[in-house]
Specification:
Layout: H1 3-9, E1 12-16, H2 22-40, H3 56-64, E2 68-74, E3 77-86, E4 91-99, H4 108-122, E5 127-133, H5 137-145, E6 149-155, E7 162-169
Length: about 170
């Protein structure tokens, strides 16, 4: 059975994460961001805080801080993840949107992003910000196609890449 057969027969859902799912979600995050780390030559040595290397404690802390955390399931298997933090009255930051490499190009990333946008609307927010690797033109283009606008860049001394910033504004 190939992946297409699997996903067609599975129920796809996006649900808030529970504490018991953090380990499985972390595995998805690590595997999804490993492709980015490989593409940009990021390692634990030159970029230890990259999402592909985060420890479980970071997710536990984010949950304790009240971040909105979601998993995308095909059946009962977690294949995607995204989280939101409230930055101010109208602004939320999107963190760690991830889809397993073998599950990409099925619309799951867009499903997660649409879910996040709707959640922000329900919470009374009007803006979502993100930070990405500026040199990742594929990702930057994907976010642009999904309504995000580029707002600037910053070079952080501790990172071996330039951080690009983008935002989405609710125009409804």
């Amino acid at each position: 059975m190939n992946l297409h057969d699997f996903t067609e027969k599975s129920i796809i859902s996006i649900v808030p994460i529970c504490a018991e799912q953090l380990g499985e979600a972390l595995e998805v995050i690590h595997r999804a961001f490993a492709t980015v780390a490989d593409d940009f030559g990021l390692t634990r040595e030159n970029c230890p805080k990259h999402t592909g290397f985060i420890p479980i404690e970071r997710l536990q802390n984010q949950m304790n801080w009240g971040w909105q955390m979601f998993v995308l399931l095909t059946g009962e298997k977690i294949v995607g993840y995204a989280s939101l933090s409230k930055e101010d009255e109208n602004t939320y930051e999107l963190h760690n949107l991830a889809v397993l490499a073998e599950c990409r190009h099925n619309g799951y990333g867009r499903m997660l992003l649409d879910h996040i946008k709707e959640k922000v609307r329900k919470l009374g927010g009007q803006r979502i910000t993100i930070g990405i690797i500026e040199e990742n033109s594929l990702l930057k283009n994907w976010y642009s196609e999904n309504g995000f606008k580029h707002t600037g860049t910053k070079k952080f001394e501790h990172l071996p890449f330039t951080t690009g910033f983008m935002e989405w504004r609710d125009e409804e």
